[in-house]
Amino acid sequence: MKVLANDGISKSGILALEKGGFEVITTKVAQEQVANFVNENNVSVVLVRSATKVRKDIIDACPGLKIIGRGGVGMDNIDVDYAKSKGIHVINTPASSSESVAELVFAHLFSGVRFLHDSNRNMPLEGDTNFDGLKKAYANGIELRGKTLGIVGIGRIGQATAKMALGLGMKVIAADSFIPQVDIKVEFFDGQSITTTIASQSLESLFKEADFITLHVPAQDGYIIGEKELAIMKDGVGIVNCARGGVIDEVALVKALDSGKVLFAGLDVFENEPTPEMAILMNHKISLTPHIGAATGEAQDRIGTELASQIISLLS
């Protein structure tokens, strides 16, 4: 059987699939050509990440398709229910990238509280002529320790983020309409651990209480953070979104950044991917990454081997 990994797959995943008797194709096929390629090459399994979309048109056009796999958590680029109604297995890897995404959240948090994103833009331009001026501009840093981190969505990635926050000495609060409370176990290098329980609270109370807010939710019909929500947040709040574009009203966010209501934002995802708005890209108060939450070697190895294991289990 043939597997098309259209958005790529780790070497470990390829080796595992080949060992299981599958042929792996890593040719990047344009979105509009996916159905033709699948049919012409008798592909049984299509694996995607966030770039390729597997909608009803492809599902209808590819009767030989047996599995659609998503390397990651969210499956909003796949018509999951429709695929299942046609007898196609739909799989993903919800646990594989949690730590990688959580670490990127803290990369943005550290960047924001110490102005690294702006400093790294200006030091090459002015470091030799305005060193003292830049030193003064970035002199009002903030420590994360002792501050309150509000986590919207306390699933696997939210929990991984909570562990890192607790390790830094932050207070962690959470809002999740599906998880009333969760036990967070923070494990240390020497085998010791501590466990604490985080109870979910209302979004409104989280927005009012948190010094920093990080979003870990699937794609939504509307905004989770808009003008109304920004208005009730603390002055000088920091906001990070490494989840999905479209959960923050970017126009309202830029307005809040410009007014000083929001101190900084860290964005890995955007409303208009892959062409984010210029007002976002050029704002010196936003730390920016191009949707790379799961893009670590370790996460991709875990994703590849987990997908391979599921495929072999389903089709062998």
From TrEMBL:
Domain D-isomer specific 2-hydroxyacid dehydrogenase catalytic: 8-314
Pfam families: 2-Hacid_dh, 2-Hacid_dh_C
Limits of the D-isomer specific 2-hydroxyacid dehydrogenase NAD-binding domain: 107-293
Bilayer-crossing regions: none
GO-annotated molecular function: NAD binding; oxidoreductase activity, acting on the CH-OH group of donors, NAD or NADP as acceptor
This protein's record includes keyword Nucleotide-binding: no
InterPro entries listed in its UniProt record: D-iso_2-hydroxyacid_DH_PdxB, D-isomer_2_OHA_DH_cat_dom, D-isomer_DH_NAD-bd, NAD(P)-bd_dom_sf
Keyword check for Oxidoreductase: yes
Keywords, sorted A to Z: NAD, Oxidoreductase
Family, per entry: Belongs to the D-isomer specific 2-hydroxyacid dehydrogenase family.
Protein name: D-3-phosphoglycerate dehydrogenase
Species of origin: Flavobacterium limicola
Lineage of producing organism: Bacteria, Pseudomonadati, Bacteroidota, Flavobacteriia, Flavobacteriales
